[in-house]
Amino acid sequence: MSQRNSYIQIEIKDNTAICHYTPAVDGGLPINYSELVEYLSLHGIDQYDQRLLRDTLMSTEPSTCDLGLCPDFEFSETMYVKVSLDKMKATVRFWPPSMGGRKMDAKDIIAELERRGIVYGVDQNVIMDYLNDRCYATDYVMAIGTPPIIGHDAKITYNFNTNPSLKPKHNEDGTVDYKELNTINHVEAGALLAELSPMDPGAPGMDIMGRDLPTRSVKDKRLSGGKNIRISDDGLRAYSEVTGHVTLTGDQIFVSDVYEVPADVDNSTGNITYSGNVHIKGSVRSGFVVEAEGDVIIDGVVEDARVMAGGQIIVKRGIHGMHKGSLEAVSNVIIAFIENAKVISGGYIETSSIIYSEVSAKEDVMVLDRKGYVAGGIVRAGGKIECMTVGSEMGALTRLEVGIEPAKKERYTMLQKTIQAETMKIEKIGPVVESYNDFITSGKALDDKNEQYLGKLMGELRTAKNLLQSLRTEFNQLHQELLASKHAKVVIRRDIYPGVTVTISDLSVTTKDKRSYCVFEKKTGEIIVSNL
């Protein structure tokens, strides 16, 4: 290389160190003074005039200076090794030997690297480059590790809407159109539904110390199809075998043609169970059951009947439940009104009114028709509840709960009761076991009957303690989730009457006065009511 950094070489003569300075060439770097001091000290040269040395190093021409007394022995070429923090690179700098000292060869360099623990990625070409043309006080990257190759998860690209979120149309006059809905994905026979990009596992690496560097773990996936799905031989593509409607349930693609009921579900049809989507052009009459693995669309009303769907439920004229009717959907529920019924949704619920009903949604509950009122009963939402009017002037008992999924809230309540019961059981058994232990400790022996009974009690106590620990762990997790629900709120777009209980996570408040256009939110450990 033409560019060279400045350096010094020591001549030892009559116990005196003489510094021979070689300046930089073609833009090379000046000597690092602290590195120079370390080099001199390493070889016992530490009684010198620093000002004289600095003046020598400022020269643009080769020059010498006397560094004073030093040990009377020659020293070999010096090699400094710097290892990066991530142990992926070793940078080496050389300083010359004294004029009578020995230069390093390839074996010496490799041995010094190994002494420093550097056993992988050593570049022999760089070593030979240095030996063929020694440039002192210059960085040589002599070892480089192999970084791991980061793989990627398998990815499935779906060619249809996997999360239908079309909501009813809100008209300018405040009404909601429950008839014009289009939330089912139509497909033709032979259509490509999904494509799989296989996972790339990547490859491990190794640092210069010879330690393995694992790549991150990746997740594998495979295309999974139910009825009417064809998977290509290489497992990378999924096609529809029929013309129908496609949905995604979990990781499984499902295509079905729609089962149509031309009129009511009643004695003429009996209960309906279908593996796809169901479209009922009439109503579901009292006492009947409709079960579908896909979506259920009902053009009429639902009486005190049961409707269950693996997808969403759409009821264009509402439900008169008479305290017996129920709707349960894995996805959304869109319905004109809910009266005296139980409705459970794994997505959101949108309706124009809720009257004396039990309504639960994993996400939001929206009651935003022109009237949009909730009167009586209980409404739960994992996200928010938004409505026009809540409660009534007659004081209908109404509860609104937000902040955690209803199913988790029920589990939370059940865990509280179970933990209390198991704690009481332990408190009852524990003293009995202690009494037996005291009896045995006193040197007395138990007869066979009492020994068997003690064994039974200790087994029950151990089981109860293990169960209690597991229950408390789950309870604490749910409790933290309950406390961390930051986006839960209740939005009132018109009026909320006295006597309505609003629960957000673990806090509750009951309205004492009528309020209008307000929002209930949890802030700084309490429920705050602010104006819209």
| Outline type | elongated
Treating each run of at least 4 consecutive H or I residues as one helix, how many helices?
6
* Largest sheet, strands/sense/barrel: 23 strands, mixed
**Poorly predicted runs:** none
Beta-strand segment tally: 41
The fraction of residues in strands falls at: 25-35%
Distance between the termini: 74 Å
Q: Using only CA atoms, what is the Rg?
A: 40 Å
Q: Please give the share of residues in helix.
A: 10-25%
The average pLDDT value, as a whole number, equals 88
Structural class: alpha/beta
When the domains are counted, the total is 4
Q: What descriptors fit this protein?
A:
four-stranded antiparallel sheet; 41 strands; elongated; 532 residues; 20% helix; 4 domains; alpha/beta; 23-stranded mixed sheet
Short structural summary:
This protein is an alpha/beta fold. It is built from 6 helices and 41 strands.
How are the SSEs placed, and which strands pair?
Blueprint: E1 7-13, E2 16-22, H1 33-42, H2 50-57, E3 63-69, E4 78-83, E5 89-95, H3 106-115, H4 124-132, E6 140-144, E7 155-158, E8 169-170, E9 176-177, E10 185-187, E11 192-197, E12 205-206, E13 212-213, E14 224-225, E15 229-231, E16 237-240, E17 244-249, E18 252-256, E19 259-261, E20 272-274, E21 278-280, E22 289-292, E23 296-298, E24 306-309, E25 313-315, E26 319-320, E27 326-329, E28 333-335, E29 338-339, E30 342-345, E31 349-351, E32 353-361, E33 365-367, E34 373-381, E35 384-390, E36 398-402, H5 406-441, H6 448-483, E37 489-496, E38 500-504, E39 507-510, E40 515-523, E41 526-531
Parallel strand pairs: 14-18, 19-21, 20-22, 21-23, 22-24, 23-25, 24-27, 25-28, 26-29, 27-30, 28-31, 29-32, 30-32, 31-33, 32-34, 33-35, 34-35, 34-36, 35-37, 36-38
Antiparallel strand pairs: 1-2, 2-3, 4-5, 5-6, 7-11, 8-9, 10-17, 11-16, 12-13, 15-16, 17-18, 37-40, 38-39, 40-41
